[in-house]
Design goal:
The chain is α+β, with helices and mostly antiparallel strands. The protein is built from 26 helices and 29 strands. Strand 12 and strand 13 form a beta hairpin. The radius of gyration is 27 Å and the shape is globular.
């Protein structure tokens, strides 16, 4: 899944130990079932009624009973049971625990040990948000249409089929569905048979699935188009609503080479006969795509390349999302973690493989530089006390949902990148291949992987891996370079811990792989810092760059003298190290461990010909500082003058108009700079955006597709009441979901607080699409976190009704994260205590930590930044 987790190495078949149960509420009761009954096959037949938002179904579940029992408990949510029976045993009494999301079947006589078939007739709901079986409505020239899809990760298959809805319980599936004739039905497997029935219905039977976890089951139904391409023995497909196939062509053409490359990399061919990429209108606050085996689901913005609105960044995101979800077909689908504690085995590895595939097939995108941005995103969470280890303890559905975060994804990816660099890419791949081969169609824990990599590498990595996955936090490597002698420079390394709010000063200990090189040199020295100390000797004389190549997961703190040398030679550094040095200096500066103006000095020293992604980082630092001045308009005006002067010449060189043959990163930089300069209030950029927007009705060249989003963003952000109303009328008239959603999103991204309040009311009015409402609220929160949070609390039930189940405990507390108001800390905690179970308050505490840190860092950093601006100005 793509979204906005030590233990001992156990055999794949060994069940995880159920965590102890705790008190009272559903979110505090372990979701793990007893292991005495194990499903082996589901034979499911169902009939959805899209108009009534209901379905009826029957399922026969083949089970193995370990020892005689009179009760069988499985997971079920929002299901009504008509009949439950077992051949040779009889009918069962049904007891439903709605809070625990379970159903217990009690028989009059014991069910003997051995094989049995449990037969269940039941009915359920079709939801309007992405959980269980859900409906998405969209506009067309022929009127409104409705399509059905399923979303089961992490714990929502139980809303569609009474089941052992945990990753450990793998089974095969036969699925049969009765649908309106003429609509396309999609499943994990190809259709085996279609039979026409009376009354305009058809019965569709899918081929038997391989053994898999419940959360990977998929069904879709609607007025769809499908295009295919043969890749070896696999039929690769893309599925869209009618009329949109051309927009999926980029994804289809990209997926074939990725599949072949993955077949080779993993040493195991993709095992299903088909692999569909399915695009759906709408969105979720929880995810953008889902790796259902053989039937990957995407919201349209994550798969469709629409020339009317898509940017180069969108194309790159489509590619990486496809690569991510396809990697899951091995890491997650073929080999699945035993329990959500090890979610990172799915998500960290899929994130790492998406990067590897992108670097391999599209070197022109220079995508390896994004590893620094991904690492920074993870460190943003990992430097606060509310963080968690990569491998984390999960007990409840809510905790599993909250595990889908930057620690699981981006830190997981960064740790893998570091370990791959430590053992070497060939040894790493050999270990991954052995892991896949040993555990295909089974379940694993993290140590199962370390065992195979260690065998393949002949090099101990488990201790290093445990340091970075079983404990939270970020190592801090302090660098002291000695005098160069005989062409070599000695470097002393000391390991501490980078934390923004840790109450104790005693650092955790890591074994840290560290690389270093003299600026401008090609010779790299490597060492392992153990016990808090390390040293290395670097070839050459000159400033030493530590974490050269930026593969390490740690912050680098130079002594003032060492940093001065690196700063003076900044233009000579590779782009990836320029990004790393700026990122560390900015983070350490905000934390008071380095002069905060050191990073701003690097911003001013960035050469004009620096990589576009380095200039993107510069723009990001400048807009970040601008946001810190929200309560100091005079100081903000002075800063903006300097920031615009820094970025405007770069934008003048890039220009509004794409040049023939320009590099893809330049196209991305164009939109980055337009957005940054608009945020900074550059009158020239804002005026040109307004001119182009006004000319769009008569001049088809005024707003080219790659600039549509950024121009709309500038219009929306700077709108007055008249412009806001005009944008709304445009949104109401728009029929293309991708463009319509963008227009409504910009209505919520307005600086004017009164208009932002109108956008919040509009979000809940029913005018925007059902799944867009929550996104509008969260967009309003980016500029007005206090307003959006207060509004959401005041309209709690209505807002939560627009959020999918997996985001229910995260959404409202997360709205406050961007606040700098001390009063918001008490508000967030009060909301959590009144509305969330004790075990489900992780997102609320993250928001509190973020607010606290923002207040602290602004108070400490702004005086120095203001003085620096005055000096430069």
């Amino acid at each position: 899944m793509l979204v906005f987790a030590a233990g001992s190495a156990l055999a794949a078949a060994a069940p995880p130990q159920a965590p102890a149960k705790s008190a009272v509420t559903a979110a505090n009761v372990t979701t793990q079932l007893p292991r005495g009954v194990v499903p082996t096959h589901y034979d499911l037949a169902f009939t959805p009624d899209a108009d009534k938002l209901t379905f009826t179904a029957s399922v026969k579940i083949a089970v193995e009973v370990v020892k005689p029992t009179t009760t069988i408990t499985l997971q079920a949510a929002d299901l009504e049971f008509a009949k439950v029976e077992m051949a040779g045993v009889g009918a069962a009494k049904v007891s439903v625990d709605a809070e625990a999301q379970t159903a217990t079947f009690t028989f009059d006589k014991p069910v003997s040990a051995g094989a049995h078939v449990l037969a269940i007739d039941y009915s359920g709901k079709i939801y309007k948000q992405a959980a269980g079986l859900f409906a998405l409505d969209y506009d067309t020239d022929q009127g409104k249409k409705r399509a059905l899809y399923t979303q089961f990760e992490n714990s929502d298959a139980r809303r569609f089929i009474p089941s052992w809805d945990e990753p450990f319980f793998k089974a095969t599936y036969d699925v049969q569905v009765t649908v309106p004739t003429g609509q396309m039905a999609i499943g994990n497997m190809p259709i085996a048979k279609t039979e026409d029935l009376p009354g305009g219905k058809s019965k569709v039977t899918f081929a038997t699935s391989p053994k898999m976890s419940t959360y990977l089951l998929f069904f879709g139904l609607g007025d769809f188009d499908r295009a295919t391409a043969k890749v070896g023995d696999v039929e690769m497909g893309v599925i869209t609503k009618k009329g949109d196939l051309a927009k999926a062509d980029f994804a289809l053409k990209s997926s074939g080479p990725i599949l072949q490359w993955y077949n080779d990399y993993f040493g195991a061919p993709y095992p299903l006969p088909k692999l569909d990429h399915i695009a759906a209108p709408g969105q979720s606050q929880f995810f953008s795509a889902m790796e259902n085996w053989g039937a990957i689901f995407y919201f349209e913005y994550a798969l469709l390349d629409d020339p009317a609105i898509s940017t180069q960044g969108d194309r790159e995101n489509i590619y990486t999302t496809v690569a991510h979800e396809m990697a899951h077909q091995w890491f997650g689908d073929l080999v699945t973690m035993q329990w959500w504690d090890d979610l990172w085995l799915n998500e960290g590895f899929a994130s790492w493989m998406e990067s590897r595939a992108t670097e391999h097939f599209h070197p022109e995108w220079n995508s390896q530089l994004k590893s620094v941005a991904n690492r920074e995103y993870a460190m943003g969470l990992d430097s606060l006390a509310t963080t968690h280890p990569v491998v984390q303890h999960v007990e409840t559905v809510d905790q599993a949902s909250q595990a889908f975060d930057a620690i699981t994804y981006e830190k997981g990816e960064a740790v893998i990148r570091m370990l791959e660099g430590y053992v070497g890419p060939e040894a790493w791949r050999a270990g991954v291949r052995a892991y896949i081969k040993a555990h295909a169609h089974g379940n694993t824990q993290t140590d199962d992987l370390w065992i195979e990599v260690e065998k393949a590498a002949g090099k101990p990595i488990t201790a290093i891996a445990h340091d970075f996955t079983l404990q939270p936090g970020i190592p801090l490597i302090t660098v002291d370079a000695g005098a160069c002698a005989a062409g070599k420079t000695p470097v002393t390394l000391t390991q501490g811990e980078f934390s923004r709010d840790k109450p104790t000063k005693t650092p955790l200990a890591w074994r840290v792989p560290v690389s270093a090189q003299v600026a401008g040199s090609s010779s790299v020295a490597k060492t392992l810092v153990v016990g808090g100390k390390g040293s290395l000797t670097v070839d050459g004389c000159g400033p030493v760059v530590v974490n050269a190549g930026q593969s390490g997961y740690f912050r680098t703190l130079y002594t003032p003298k060492a940093f001065a040398g690196v700063s003076a030679n900044f233009s000579k550094l590779p782009a990836i190290d320029q990004l790393g040095v700026i990122s560390d200096a900015w983070a350490l500066g905000l934390n008071g461990q380095q002069a905060v103006t050191d990073a701003l000095d690097l911003v001013m020293a960035t050469p004009a010909d620096a990589d576009p992604q380095v200039w993107g980082k510069v723009a990001g630092v400048l807009t970040n500082v601008d946001g810190m001045y929200e309560s100091a308009p005079a100081d903000r005006a002075a800063f903006r003058k300097l920031a615009i002067a820094r970025l405007a010449p770069v934008f003048q060189k890039v220009g509004w108009t794409a040049q023939p043959g320009e590099a893809a990163p330049v196209a991305t930089l164009r939109t980055t700079l337009i957005n940054a300069l608009s945020i900074l209030g550059d009158p020239a950029v804002i005026a040109e955006a307004k001119r182009r927007y006004a000319a769009d009705k008569t001049d088809p060249t005024a707003v080219p597709g790659p600039l549509r989003k950024v121009i709309l963003s500038s219009i929306g952000r700077n709108a007055d009441a008249a412009a806001w109303d005009a944008l709304r009328e445009q949104a109401k008239a728009e029929k293309t979901p991708l463009i319509r959603d963008q227009l409504y999103t910009q209505l919520a991204s307005v600086q004017d607080e009164a208009l932002a309040a109108k956008a919040l009311d509009l979000a809940l009015s029913g005018e925007p699409s059902e799944t867009l409402a929550a996104n509008m609220v969260s967009k309003a929160a980016q500029l007005h976190p206090d307003l959006a949070f207060d509004y959401a609390v005041a309209h709690k039930d209505a807002v939560n009704g627009k959020v999918d189940a997996a985001s229910a405990t995260k959404f409202i507390p997360g709205l406050a994260r961007g606040s700098a108001d001390p009063a918001m800390i008490g508000k967030v905690r009060a909301y959590a205590e009144a509305n969330l179970p004790a075990g489900s308050r992780g997102e609320a505490e993250k928001s509190v930590a973020s607010i606290t840190d923002r207040i602290k860092s602004r108070k400490a950093a702004l005086p120095a930044i203001t003085a620096w601006v005055a000096k430069k100005g």
